[in-house]
Amino acid sequence: MTTTNVAQTLAHLVGAEHVAPDDQLARYAVDGVVPQTVVFPADAGQVADVVKLARAEGLALLPWGGGTAMAAGSAPERLDIVLGTRRMGRILEHEPADLVAIVEAGITLAQLNEALGRHGQMLPIDAPRSERATIGGILAANTSGPRRLSYGTSRDHLIGVRFVDAQGELIKGGGKVVKNVAGYDIPKLLVGSLGTLGIIVEATFKLAPAPRASSAILGGFRELDQALEAAQAVLQAGMRPVALDLFNAQAYQVVAARAGVPTLSDRRYFLALDVGTQPATVKRQVDQAHRIITKAGGKSLVVDEGTAYRAFWRAAVDLGRGGERPAPMITRSSMLFSDLASSIHGHEALGESSHLEVGVHVHLAAGVLHGVWWGEANGPADEAMLIDAVATLRKATENLGGRFVVESCGPSVKRAVDVWGPPGPEFAIMRRLKEQFDPGRIFSPGRFVGGL
Amino acid sequence: MATKTKRTSLIGALEGIVGAEFVLHTPEDMVVFEYDGSIGKSLPQVVVFPSTTEQVAQIVRLAYSVDVPIVPRGAGTGLSGGAVAVKGGIVVTLTRMNRILEIDPVNRQATVEPGVINLHLSEQAEPHGLYYVPDPSSQRVCTIGGNVAENSGGPHCLAYGVTTNHVLGLEVVLPDGEVVWLGGPLEDMPGYDLTGLFVGSEGTLGIVTKAIVKLYPIAESVRTLVAVYEEIDDASRAVSAIIASGVIPAALEMIDKVTIEAVVQAVDVEYPSDAGAVLLIEVDGLKEAVEQESEAVEAICRDLGAREIRVAETPEDRERLWAARKGALAALGRLAPNYYILDGVVPRSRLMDVLRRVGEICDRYDFRVANVFHAGDGNLHPNILFDERIPGQSERVLEAGAEIMQVCVEVGGTITGEHGVGLEKKGFMSLVFSPQDIAAMEKVRDAFSSVETFNPCKIFSTAKGCGEGWRVPTLPDLGPGSFL
Ligand SMILES: Cc1cc2nc3c(=O)[nH]c(=O)nc-3n(C[C@H](O)[C@H](O)[C@H](O)COP(=O)(O)OP(=O)(O)OC[C@H]3O[C@@H](n4cnc5c(N)ncnc54)[C@H](O)[C@@H]3O)c2cc1C
């Protein structure tokens, strides 16, 4: 089939007005690869029709939610059809008394949480640009943020899923009850699979009650050791923070400026504790954290209810993603809590020696470190330096027993590095999963670990 | 004759791997390994007790090379027949691999061998102010390997999640004998979530030889209370109302009248023996929150007709209340020679309705039923009491069970919440899943391995050659206190 014929068939399947005009195709380029067609199906049935067409014609298909994580993964080896989920944005079921909601994949996190909030509930997943990021994309990219400390990540919330497989069949995994061991845990298969095994069309979540109080306490320190000592003390003192993050000065200044929080410019490392959920515990946790921060040599600052609190965490989650200072590269290193200090110093040393500026933002208890890389003094980043940085960081992280991934970068850096890094021996199973679910390699080919 | 030689040489080879004292094969010994905690029953030919990953790998490779079925086994408390050797063959019992290899308090994780008993891990973590969250009622005997295989839950999984939410990495021996790590000590490993797929795979994808699990800080404050109801309907309403109010207690368990009758005979606990149902509720966390939440819970319980609320005043009180809950299944032996335990899950707003229908079904079959379950999760455990010596009862109890599962599915629930599909429920998978849904699961299995002799005939009823060789068996006696 020629490109024109594919576009015509798709127009026939979903309606001509739901196929993007040619002059818009460039907006849907993935790592510089421009698709032949962009199509917006209305429902799972139409998704299945599109998949069947792709399969019959051997076309590569890439699902597109809000487009906020499109710089993730390796560059696609082929890209013919982008399948946009923006028309699939309904809440299909929300039974507040069960704390469960079923939604279509194209709903944005912000829309969902706004609707849930009216019932005092929420889906406690953090994702950058939540007003654009869709549930399908968040699941596929396994996006997470500060609140993972107390709420976990997508794998802990997703209790049911529907996806369209490579045959165009609608497959259900899990269900809508909070405990379920009937057969294998198919929802886990889809979380983090980056559109390589099927198209997620529907998700069922276990929800959480919305917090009844929101308050954060920040601690500014001169030395990293002091900040980490305070963090360790918080974890050992029986406190129950919702989030416990660390920022270096570069990261903190950007977040603070955007959130309208004092920048404490004489400090180099910043702890941020979310101590929300209940009015009864806020004061006590703030007092406790204040004592710990002060004892470790820090200066504390309370960010209260309302706008500043929300703005702060939002700016933290969005750091480097759009906004005033989009970063040309964001990296993620996972390691043990006890190895973080060395890695943080390593990031900063590299920043200095490479004439890049690096913002460090760490989810401490999870051992997840984001490096947000900018050009020096607001200038453009030298790509050769970014490429060198990837090699240096990967080696340093792996020496600590950690894993290093480039979360986002531009197409030319991507061509020069393997964003995922070398897979381990368990990769053989992953490869067979891909072969089982997508033998014709129609779903986002080449984008995943090991070229899957 | 030929099979006999084959059997002898197989035993010889296994003895060569682990030493003769760790291989059992006499008929008397096999009887002990014929069943687990479920109603399935089938004799293995040989039971082997490895002590290292390398031995497990050698055993698995041997079984594969001679095409003999092989079944992993922990403590054998499973309630769905997962450890039953349906096609005979080798049972690999992991109980000798019971070392806690490391407790890492700074990174809050532990590395354990699969035969470690669940409760032992929490006991060892306690000096560090930590514990392992999932606490199946069988935790004094069941193993971490079995927990991983079944994705076990427990009374305290309501607020903090079940096994899958606490496992970071697994060293496994795949069905062809290859040893591989899935996940590891870190979160967010790139690639598909193989750990997540393995947890809950019921011993069909490989044998766990090491597990890295998360540990959680022991709460500074805990309050345990019992709300006593005349009517089970009111207790059900209270459960739904608590969840809807936005308080998620650490535990929210229901114990019905029939169960109370058994428990008060078996355990030293003062549950009011005339109650229609009691709720056992635990709230934990920061002391200020515990105070506030337990007051909120108490208020809801009273509003919905609790005739009495008792709060555990001392740690001993608390222990006693829990002993009664955790000993409840064993105590049922006092009421009937056998019970058949179901494990359906329903949306939490449907509890009252479903419990009524469970009662009606059991009435219709003329069985007594004892409900003791994880109410906060909507995870029912109707225990149907019967006597296998009475002809026809074993068949009818399964029929009643089938109707109950049907009801759970009808209201939007599922057939099993923590015990697994195993042998016993595989015929009911089609109530919940389409053939395509099941085919997707089989693809996952095939990605891990295509060895058909590895723990055969479990979960899927589509497997070849599984129709015969296993029939609805006679049921094992479960005397009082058999597990706890
Ligand atoms: C009184 C009683 C109370 C119970 N309460 C609960 C409860 O509250 N919650 C709950 O979830 N369950 C409960 N159970 C069920 C049971 O205890 C759990 O399923 C437990 O996890 C089984 O552990 P086990 O070591 O006995 O495993 P087994 O019964 O020996 O095996 C169970 C399954 O795991 C597989 N397996 C065992 N070890 C391994 C390994 N190392 N690698 C791979 N596969 C393996 C077996 O092949 C089998 O499929 C209860 C059972 C009883 C008898």
Brief write-up:
The complex is a heterodimer of chains A (452) and B (484). By secondary structure, chain A is α+β, with helices and mostly antiparallel strands.
Explain this structure.
The complex is a heterodimer of chains A (452) and B (484). Chain A is of the alpha+beta class. Chain A folds into 3 domains: 1-210 and 424-452, 2-Layer Sandwich (Uridine Diphospho-n-acetylenolpyruvylglucosamine Reductase, domain 3), CATH 3.30.465.10; 213-318, Alpha-Beta Plaits (2-Layer Sandwich), CATH 3.30.70; 329-416, Alpha-Beta Plaits (2-Layer Sandwich), CATH 3.30.70. Chain A has 15 helices and 18 strands. Chain A has an 8-stranded antiparallel beta sheet with strand order 14-11-13-12-16-17-15-18. In chain A, helix 9 crosses helix 11. Chain A is globular, with a radius of gyration of 22 Å. Chain B is an alpha+beta fold and 484 residues long. Chain B folds into 4 domains: 2-95 and 442-478, Uridine Diphospho-n-acetylenolpyruvylglucosamine Reductase, domain 2, CATH 3.30.43.10; 100-217, Uridine Diphospho-n-acetylenolpyruvylglucosamine Reductase, domain 3 (2-Layer Sandwich), CATH 3.30.465; 221-330, Alpha-Beta Plaits; 336-420, Alpha-Beta Plaits (2-Layer Sandwich), CATH 3.30.70. Chain B is built from 16 helices and 18 strands. A 7-stranded antiparallel beta sheet of chain B has the order 15-12-14-13-17-18-16, sandwiched between helices. Chain B is globular and about 70 Å long. The two termini of chain B are 43 Å apart. Flavin-adenine dinucleotide binds next to strand 3, helix 5, strand 10 and helix 12 of chain B.
